Amino acid sequence: MSKSVQSLYTYTFLLPAGVIYALFFLAPTFLSFFYSLTIWTLSEWRFTGLDNFAIFLSEPSLVIGFRNTLVYATVSASLKVVLGFLLAAFLTSELRTKGFLRSLIYFPNIVSTIAVGIMFSSFLHPSKGIVNVLLALIGIDGPDWLGNPSIALLSVALVDVWKGVGIAMVIFIAGIQAIDRQYYEAARIDGASSFDALRHITLPLSRSSMNTVIMLAFIGGLRSFDLIWVMTKGGPGFTTDLVASIIYKQFQGGFYGIATAGNVILFLIVSAFAIPLYRIITKKEVDL
Amino acid sequence: MKRTVLIALAFVLIAMVAVQAAGKSEGSGDASDPSQQQKIVWLHFANDVQQKGLDAVVEAFEAQHGIDVEIEFRPGGPEGENLVKTRIAANDMPDVLSYNSGSLFQVLNLEKNFVDLSNEPLADRLLESFKATVTDGKGGVYGVPYQPIPAGGIIYNKRVYEELGLSIPLTWAQFIRNSEIIKAAGLVPVIASYKDDWTAQLLILADYFNVEASNPDFAEQYTANEAKFADTPAALRGFEKIQEVYEKGLINKEPMATTYDNAMEMVALGQGVHYPMATWVLAGINEKFPEYIDDIGFFALPGDSADKNGATLWMPNNISIAKTTKNLEAAKLFVDFVVSDEGLAALMSAGAPDGTFAVKGAKLPDTVFPAVKDVLRYVDEDRTAAALEFLSPIKGPNLPQICVQAGLSLKTPLECALEYDRDVEKQAKQLMLPGW
Q: Contacts of residue A233 in chain B, CB cutoff 8 Å?
């Protein structure tokens, strides 16, 4: 068999996956670049140049959307990293109920986001919700978690942490369990406290899992949509709109061209954050 | 040996399923086969408050014509609109469709996607004002009404009004004065249910009678990009009213946690006294609190002058026939039946309607709710105007959120109006209207 035939032979194995990838991923991606330049009613289109981008970027709520998206992604990602790490460190210790606790913390992750959103919307009701009822018992007058424009976004971000911290924890547990026990034994002989061990052994050696968690959580936060949509619909007014919910509202309004332009912009933003972020954290890993 | 048998068996099974599937698709495609029951599919709103009445209409139709009607439910609001638009684009429309009349329906490219009914006898039975909301502007009529005509204004609790000795306000200033008295009595004067943000729009949408009273050509100029909400004082009033009830402390606590359903309960029990809403809420109140429906009344949203006082009318949703239908004759029979005397009788057999019909000569029973009688007084005295969304094809999709901003005083009324004007511009450009 000649070499070219042989390589052709290997390519035929890639063909089915390649066709599916091209059909369902590449084609829509390139089509969306095209449709973002048109007034599009799903069945007809008319070319309008960069108008859609201009309209989308002049959307009055967009500034709020960008700020909210960044705040949301940063708050939820950092809390997931910190809490996930602490929980993982705690649940890799010699604890009798750790199997149970691990499942308990991981559990919210397998519940549908919509269900979580509906559930917490009722928990966070300003007068009848369980959160404020409990706060009232200890004499605190709880705020309107989802109705107060200055804290609504943080309330949703916290729910997102509750739901997503399980994944972060599982990744950290995998990382921590891969650390050689000898380091801890050596440290103990040298007189290190368990906090020292956590600080100087566990933390640096779970760096690669931390990178994974940061990446996943931050990009997840940037693209986040479902939870905010169920809990506040971007409201009150536009105060909790994220870039993704603004795009969705364009779709709802029937502005398919503008919505597609918004998606192209979101794609560029996520790449603009994700690519350097990936570079920076993988570099640190090598430095270690 | 055993294995060959198994494989053979598997083949036989697959072949049987395939043959069956092929037979099935052949069967359903052939609607003209007389031996088979004809069937039309109706894509309709889920949770329709008058579903019982519509079920009765379907039943009566099936009995009379021997054609099955299968109702397929879809969500309402923007989600449902997107679903319909997607199904139109994918050529996957049902035989008949229910949809909002007016601007929402008119963006669907009626001539291309729906069957023109203007030459059918039923077209003569429809009110001209209704036909204007289901036309493409070229004389086509693309839908028939299946609901009573709703009126927008203030749904209020008559019992509390009597107890406090209040009279129906004819001006906004009187409305505020009444509200202050209600507040002093420890009740909620104005119910704000902003958790369902569409309800926040009513103080603007139902104010259109007052806009038209002072600017009779507003709808036309607005469509032609000559008048804006921000620079028309009468139109701006709507945003100001939403903000005023908040600033004066006249709305309930927790507006962002109060839903449409909560509001129904509040007004029915008299905990809240005014609810800016349209009469479609009556059926819901009647279903949940039938013992209180007689306490509920209606008055028009007052403007600034007592001698110009009237109600803003919505137009009922419509049923249209998709151009792609394979059962055109059956579908036509169905829409004809919906607006026939038998159809209306069947609809009303499940309960008194919550408004008059957009069908000529339709008689209402005496058992209509007191609030409906209040509305009929405005209709009889000809003190009504159609809502803006039925006079102009443009309605900005972000109005609910913009109204909530005004309703919580997050922005000034003028800022809200400017924001809404921008929102409208986007819609007008999408529709490629002249002048934008």
A: 197
Position A44 scores a pLDDT of 78
Whether A117 and chain B come into contact, CB under 8 Å, resolves to no
Q: What is the CATH number of the domain that holds A173?
A: 1.10.3720.10
**Is the ipTM value over 0.85, yes or no?**
no
How far does the CA of residue A122 sit from the closest CA of chain B (Å)?
A: 9
Q: Which residues sit opposite B299 in a β-bridge? A: B154
DSSP A119: H
Distances A144 to B20, B255, B425 between C-alpha atoms, Å: 58, 10, 34
Please tell me which residue of chain A has the smallest CA distance to B108. Answer: A41
pLDDT tens digit string along A221-247? 888 889 999 999 887 989 999 988 998
Number of domains comprising chain A: 1
Task: Using an 8 Å CB-CB cutoff, list chain B residues near A226.
Answer: none
Residue B122 lies in a domain: yes
pLDDT digits (tens, 9 = 90+) for B16-32: 555 555 444 444 444 44
Q: Number of Cβ pairs closer than 8 Å across A and B?
A: 88
CATH code for the domain in which residue B59 is found: 3.40.190.10
Say what the pTM is.
Answer: 0.82
CA distance A48 to chain B (A): 11
The closest of B174, B394, B238, B172 to A255, measured between CA atoms, is: B394
Place of tokens 């968690």: A213
- The whole-angstrom separation of Cα A144 and Cα A151 is 8
